Amino acid sequence: MEDRNNTIIIVSIGFTAVLALIAALVLLTLTKLYSVNVDMPRLVEEVSIKTGAIHTMRDAIRLRQLDINKALHLDDIFARDEINMNLLRYATQYRQAEQVLDGIPKGPHEQKIYAALKDTTKTAYSYNLKAIELIIAGDKGAYVEEVLSKALLQQEKVLGLLNEYVALQQQNAEDAIATNYREYKKTRNLLVALSTIVLLLAGFIAFLVIKRASRSNREIVHQASHDALTGLINRREFEHRLADAVMQAKTQDIEHALIYLDLDQFKIINDTCGHMAGDALLQRITADLQSYIRQSDSLARLGGDEFAIILLDCNLEGAEVIAQGLIDVVNNIRFTWEEHVFNVSASAGVVPISKDSENSAVVMSAADAACYEAKDAGRNAVRTSQSSNLEPSQQQGDIWWVSRINQALEQDRFELYAQAIIATKNDEDMSADYELLLRMRDREGAIVLPGVFIPPAERFGLMVKLDRWVVSTALDWISEHGDVLGEASFSINLSGSSITDQSFQRFLSAVIKSSDVASERLHFEITETAMIANLELVSQFIHNMQQMGCKFALDDFGRGLSSFSYLKTLPVDYVKIDGMFIRDIVDNAVNFAFVKSIDEIAKAMGKKTIAEYVETKGAQNKLRDIGVDYIQGYAIHKPEPIDNLLLNAPARKKLQEQN
Fold first, then answer.
1. How many CB atoms lie within 10 A of CB 290?
2. Who's near 372: CB < 8 A, 6+ residues apart?
3. CB 268 within 8 Å of CB 529
4. What's the CATH number of domain 1-225, 3.40.1400.10, 1.20.120.1730, 2.40.30.10, 3.40.50.360?
5. What ranges do the domains of the chain cover?
6. Which of 170, 377, 532, 639 could form a disulfide with 419 if both were Cys (CB 3.0 to 4.6 A apart)?
7. 572-591 as b/e: b if 16+ CB within 10 A
8. Which helix (H) or strand (E) holds 555?
9. Domains 1-225 and 417-439+459-658 share a fold
10. SS3 613
11. Rg of the chain over CA atoms, in angstroms?
12. CATH, range 417-439+459-658
């Protein structure tokens, strides 16, 4: 402890002395440099201005003489007048340059030359003026020649004085530079001497701080390779370790594995409770993941809510078990922030690292794609991918789908399907309503379901374009055929990207106003996730559309969030209960109670309820017993091309009456 204190005292004294010397050195240097350079900018500017003015005067004299000689040989009075105008302009340029020189201080020698210059200029100008008057009048006799000769003589004197003046400016500048250079050398020598003293003193104390400096360097290196929030290695360090793992697998025939883990719906926690809550959750998850993995594994935070783990000396089967264990670890977290409670989940993609792996970028891309596949399958899942067997189109599957989606739009290969939504009570209006569903046909004509092409469309910003197509196509169809189905309403799904896009909002309002479809027949479905993520903006959008007569349904209600706490703030007309509670409602008492609670709370708030994924008669009866207002699913009506509604309207009316 005493040694440490002595070190601190010595270092403090040494640095104080160094700082004092540096301060003295800086002060002396600045004083010297100021005294040396104080007049230099002014001198340079004056020389530049004087030189520029003199060049202007020389050019004006030369151009003036050329035009006078030209006028002497012209018979056209108009041409002579034009030259006269040029001569006046040259005289003006000369006078303006002369005025610039008048305003600049001059030395004794300069003043002498300048005075002679002005006198000679006056004499030359009088001869020039006389010659011009004679030439303009058309006189070309010997007298004119004599006047011009005298004028030329005086102008040559003027040019000589101007050249002498320029040479003087150059000499003045060279003298000033030489003086400054001599002073600079004196100052430089003084600086070298004082700097040597400072360096010797600094070297004396350098060894006392070397250990502290090295420790600081280690901290900097650690910060450069680790995430500040969680303390995990960051993406840059992780990519280095992954490249090493791939190289080791290829050269030593050892099998490793990579897990890419992404939290599900993390953005909602951030948007609902703020970034402090999101940061706290990330730190909690980090601690739990670290406690689960092996010491030899490398856990990294890649950014946002994305994590990755390199499992050394681990085959694919073992990696799948570990990945599922990590998913379970996340599932066991019940995150509480203020009055909000969240159930957390994650999706994971697993990829082997073997001698067949191409490179670290391909392995990472495959793991990312596998993770997105897990999300597309419903989240909270693990998917594996054989990175070595992936074709380029598979490695970049989402980008490939972007191209396919755009081609399908251009080639009109999207279609609208419809699925009936019917009332559960006999005293309700017996006409069916319909949800419009989007389908895509591939180049061979096979149907592509939305679960395949919607996720890449969402990730690459194509949903607004798809939603525009759906709305426009739906309005055209309803306008042409809607009367066949009576007063049926039509539900259209809107993505989170569209409802927060102001240009789409303007488009939707304009296209509805320009259509002859009654706005009361248009219902729009928005997912709970999209609405809560942008609550204020979406609420205003819904309010504006409701003012036009449109209605809104909250889709997928109850999926993975503290939904009830938001329901009272959401300005929707219908609550659409998520299908995961409906499928086994007959045998699962918890799901039955949950659906009953949703129905009761929704009705208390003046909202009607819709149950989707009704696939059995038993589920249909349970929902009728609960009091759910509307039902939808395969037990009622399977989705079919929208044009089929025109053919099957009578049969569907009979089917609904039987239900």
1. 14
2. 347, 349, 398, 455, 459
3. yes
4. 1.20.120.1730
5. 1-225, 235-395, 417-439+459-658
6. 639
7. bbbbbbbbebbbebeeeeeb
8. strand 551-557
9. no
10. coil
11. 43
12. 3.20.20.450
Neighbours of 448 (CB within 10 A): 18
Residues taking part in catalysis? 305
CA distance 262 to 104: 73
DSSP secondary structure letters along 165-221: HHHHHHHHHHHHHHHHHHHHHHHHHHHHHHHHHHHHHHHHHHHHHHHHHHHHHHHHH
| 592 three-state secondary structure | helix
- Give the three-class secondary structure for 250: helix
Q: CB within 8 A of 25, min separation 6: which ones?
A: 191, 194, 195, 198
pLDDT in tens, 313-353: 999 999 999 999 999 999 888 888 887 778 888 999 999 99
Q: What percent of the chain has pLDDT over 90?
A: 31
Give the H/E segment covering residue 640: strand 640-641
How far CA 392 is from CA of 51, 168, 362, 395, 603, in Å, comes to 68, 75, 9, 5, 52
Tell me if 263 sits within 8 A of 330, measured CB to CB: yes
Tell me how far apart the alpha carbons of residues 498 and 105 are, in angstroms, rounded to a whole number: 71
What is d(CA 325, CA 75) in angstroms, rounded to the nearest whole number? 106
Instruction: Note the pLDDT tens digit of each residue in 144-165.
Output: 566 666 666 767 777 777 777 6
SS3 content of the chain, % helix, strand, coil (to 5): 65, 15, 20
Token pair of 148 as six digits:
């011009």
Gap between the Cα atoms of 151 and 252, Å rounded:
97
pLDDT for 491 beyond 80 = yes
Residue 127 CA to residue 34 CA, distance in Å, equals 50
Strand partners, 441: 447
Domain 235-395 CATH assignment equals 3.30.70.270: yes
Nearest alpha carbon to residue 245 among 134, 360, 155: 360
Closest to 429 measured CA to CA, from 374, 474, 488: 488
DSSP track, 416-442: EEEEEEEESSTTS----EEEEEEEEE-
Within 8 A by CB and 6+ apart from 296, the residues are 312, 313
Contact 421, 613 (CB under 8 A): no
Q: Is residue 633 classed exposed, middle or buried when 0-12, 13-18 and 19+ CB atoms within 10 A define those classes?
A: buried
Q: Can you spell out the DSSP letters for 37-103?
A: HSSHHHHHHHHHHHHHHHHHHHHHHHHHHHHHHHHHT---HHHHHHHHHHHHHHHHHHHHHHHHHHT
Strand residue runs (E) in 242-333: 256-263, 298-303, 306-311
The overall pTM is greater than 0.70: no
